[in-house]
Amino acid sequence: MLEGKVALVTGAGRGIGREIALTLAGYGADVIVNYNGSQVQAEAAAAEIEAMGRKAAAVQCSVAEDEACGKMIEDMLARFGHIDILVNNAGITRDNLVVKISEADFDSVIATNLKGTFHTIKHMYRAFLKQRSGRIINIASVSGILGNAGQANYAASKAGIIGLTKSAARELAGRNVTVNAIAPGYVDTDMTQAMSEEARGRILSQIPLKRVGNPKDIAEAAAFLASDKASYITGQVLSIDGGMAM
Ligand code: NAP
Question: pTM value?
Fold first, then answer.
């Protein structure tokens, strides 16, 4: 389904990003595994992709850094020749009540989640225009749609990603580049494992399908949006949340 394509997945050493990277490779793509701090995991993911017979690279870059993103994309375009699929998955939380969120915690969540997504799209923009094809998939969140008490900074960053997605989709549609967002609900990863049993129970009671999501639920949808099968879908937000935001 993705043979001959090259994908760049941000934050792909762990969690949902790792699963997306492996799933895209499973469908035939070569994959650039971006990481920030998780070098060992990212190199292991790249090795797993190579063992599947695909090309891979693990590359360090904080998506919060504009110049570093530009350099990563320039280097990877030179190495792989083209990048057809950009998955903006890197994300962090710094949860607290609005009254207790520090300036630093508000800024760092916006810098990684929202500006990180902006940086990679900006640096891929001309390449996508020239190629006259491409897929951008941004990982938003149910929090960006419904809001979530204790996550104002995170929800604002994810709501921002939705606006960015729709604007970029309108700009790039004429060149056959689609831009979509996925809004996961509660997915079992490091990000959510820190929660108490009580908080977990509270969230479960809000999920109509009565189970938490797993990274594969998100990765298969990302692979579909990255494929030719989704060529007439752009500017959309696909909720994958067991029905939380219906
Ligand atoms: P996770 O297990 O905490 O992993 C976060 C990933 O983001 C890591 O690979 C991390 O890389 C990367 N990252 C963080 N800061 C980065 C930076 N500055 N530059 C590059 N990479 C960076 O989280 P996850 O659950 O897999 O979440 C993945 C995405 O899904 C996030 O955007 C998250 O907001 C979204 N999401 C998750 C859930 C959920 O329930 N889990 C729900 C909705 C949305 P390093 O380890 O290399 O630093």
Answer: 0.98
